[in-house]
Every structure is written in structure tokens, then in C-alpha cells.
Amino acid sequence: MVERADKTSRARPTVRWMIVGAVVLVVVLGAVTGGFRFLGERALYATGLWIDGGSPTIAPGTFDQPPDPAALPVAPGDPVLATATRASGLNAEQVTQSLRTADLPGGQLFGEVLDAADGRVLFDANGSGSGTPASTQKVLTTVAALQLYGPEHTFDTRSVLAGNQLWLVGGGDPFLTRDELTQHGQQAAAALKQRGVTQVQLGYDTSLFTGTGWNPDWRGTYTNMVTPTSSLWIDKGLVTPSVDSVGVREADPSRKAADVYAEALRGQGITVNGVTAQQAPASATEIATHHSRTLSDIVEQVLVHSDNDGAEVLFRQIGRSGGRSGSIADAQTATRETLQQLGVWTDGMKVVDGSGLSRENLTSPNTLTRAILAASQPEHEKLRPLITGMSVARAEGTLLNRFVEDGSQAGRGLVRGKTGTLTNVHSLAGLVPTRDGSMVVFAFIVNGEQDEYRTRVWLDRAATALATCGCRG
Length: 473
What we know:
With 473 residues, this protein is of the alpha+beta class. It has helices at 12-32, 38-47, 92-99, 137-149, 178-194, 253-267, 295-304, 308-319, 328-342, 365-375, 385-388, 452-467, and strands at residues 108-115, 121-125, 156-162, 165-169, 199-205, 271-277, 285-291, 391-392, 416-422, 425-433, 439-447. The strands form two sheets. It has a six-stranded antiparallel beta sheet with strand order 2-1-11-10-9-8, sandwiched between helices. Strands 6-5-4-3-7 form a five-stranded mixed beta sheet, with helices on one face. Helix 4 (137-149) crosses helix 10 and helix 8 crosses helix 9 (328-342). The longest helix is centred in the first third of the chain and has 21 residues, at 12-32.
């Protein structure tokens, strides 16, 4: 609750001590359980009272007697972070020297750093070579989807009717929930009643995407990490909804969605005389539509949580572009062609899936950095959710629990990136302001290092080295 400006000063000490008490409480809770040490920190981050390695975000004396209102400054204070500029002039040798402060991991390194001002290469370690990217592949999937559909696009789940035959038509909404589908069923029931229809045969249509839902290049052990891709499901096909997409899957996610929809119809007094999988005719009349969240929001969800299911649905949506059928092969072709049109494709790459689960994917740092660079440019505003969707170091998503080791902590709150992790495969791609206010784009892929933790720490330290670099020369 925010204290109104017109409250008397007598009310302020009570509110002030309430705030002090809350802060003390979260600090104590965080200190009591060592395993949850960051609890107190996270709470203080949320209140704006803590910034690792930074200046206090509250002025000394804040909890003293309130000052005379006439003495308060009227001009806004300095920003917490200086605005990054697009001025060129970064020195490649200094950037390389800065990266050398982080001990290189074993295995094979593919890396590149660009000056965001002019696209100049500042660091190149086989940057045009292609390695297994793991989940940084999602950078390419989301940028291709944004390029093809635009950030405001939605994927619509529809109810269509012909006589007493009703169809639930999947539109490839990756994050359709049980509650949303229930509400859609209730809207469809109201539309049926308006037409005097009180009993229906129900069909569910999953024809938007063709071919197998399970990518043949995925390992069989990935069944708890991704659902066979479908244009119709609820809660990503998970038995128990989870933001990180890990868990047991429904045996038939599309049928489960149809059953939930049928239940919603029955709850509104509509008799459902059977549920079958079948394609709706083009002549059927649309009676209700549920719009997904915007593609911008979907992209941000896919990136910040590294959502495999969402990425694979977007991959198939890419495969629907240009009149294609939405098969895996169509998605592979359309992704490559879109990246070529954007001018970011590198010869020698290979696109197998949208999530990066397949080890057969081959991606170059050069393509990752140029895709991110394009999304940061004013002329590519529709690609901007690629930037806003990346996790912030030690603040959210897949970077929430990163940047904890010595040599990486200064990157907290500064590095914005997309992670990638498979066994013996680690990657990080993103952008970060340097100490002197410039902006750099980076991508690092490490394949084959047996020490998983060492590799991950190196990626954090390398990104931090860029953040702390005074590299204008």
C-alpha cells in the first residue's frame, strides 16, 4: 500500500515501523535457514532496498523524522543505471583481454561478441562455427516467429457448429489453460442456447499441425521435459501444471482438452452425446473464439522460463507460414528461410527443433549475436520481445540462481541472456552494458566439457567480464 501524500505526518511513523518490521522479518527468515539464504535478499530486491554490488537504493535517514515537505527536491534524481549509448569506439583488444580474466573451460568453445553500436566483431572464438546450442536455440525460434507473425498476433481456439455437430478447433495456443478452455466452453454453450441447440455431438480438431508430434531426434528420456506437440492441449499437456514444463504428461493431451471442454458444456446444460477426434469442415459456423495471449507475451514466457513446449508450438506455427502444413520438416525449412531473410543465417547450421532439446541442432554464435542485435535495432521493433524476454542475472527465470560465484556477482542485474543446458553442453547468449556505458551482444557455446559446473560458472564470469569492461579505447 502506498501512503497518500495528503496524510498527516502523525500517520507516517506507524507505516515506517511497519516497513522496518517487515524488512527485519524477511532478513531473519533468510538467515535462519541457510539453504534458503537468498530469501531475504529476494525480498529486499522486491522492496528496492538491496542491490548487489551497488549503492544503497534508499537515502540515509529515510527512517528518521520526515523532512519538511518544502525542503524536498522537485527534480528527479539520477537514474540507478546510466543509459547505455550506441556510440561506437569499443576496443576489440580490450574486450578480448577482459574475457581472458575468466579462466577458459575445457571442451570446444564457440564464441562471439559484437559492438551493439555498429555490429563490429570485438571477440571471435570460432564464432562462425556451429555447435550444439541447447536452449539458446529458442532465440532463433522466437525471432523467426516474431518476424513472421508480429508481436500482437494471437493463436485462436475456436468453436464451430454445423447442425447439432460441434467442433473444438485447436489453434496452436501453447499456453491455453484449463480455466481458459472452461470459460470458452461456457461461451460456446451460451451461443448454442441462443441458436436453440441443447445437445451436440462433439468433435475435436487437431489438424493445424500435420505429422508426428514427437520429434524423432529427441531422446526417449525427454518425456518428462516436453509434450508431443499438438495444436490443442491445456496446461501444456502436463498432469500437474508447472511453469518450467517439467513433469508427467497426459497420455492424450488433446482428448483431455476436449473432455474439459465437454464438461464445461454440460455444466451449462448442454448435452454432449459423444466426443471424437475429427476435422471440422470449412463450412461450419464459428460461434465462439478464445484468443491466446499475444505473441509478444508468449515469446517472453518461452524465453524467461526456457519453455520447451511453448517453443515447439511456435516452431510448428513457423511451419504453417507461407501455406505450409505445420509439420516438423516444414518448420525446419521455414525457420531457415526466415533467418536467411533476416540476414542472420550462417552456413553449416542445422535446425532440428524449436526448443534445442535435440543434440542434432547446430547453431553458430554469429547467428545468435546477429539475431539479438537485429532485435535491438529501431528498424526491427517487432523483434523487441526477444530482448525483453531474456532473463536478468540473479533476478528471474533461468538466471535467477546464476551469477553467485566470485567473479560473476558484478553481473547481477546487468546481464540479460538466454541460457542453454544439456549434458556436456552449455551456452549463454544475450547483451549487457559495459562499465563505460556501451552495449555489447554476446554468444558463447561450450560443447564437450565434462565439468558441468565449471562451464556454467565460466559463462557467468565471461558475461560479467563484459559488464565490468571499460573497453573504449
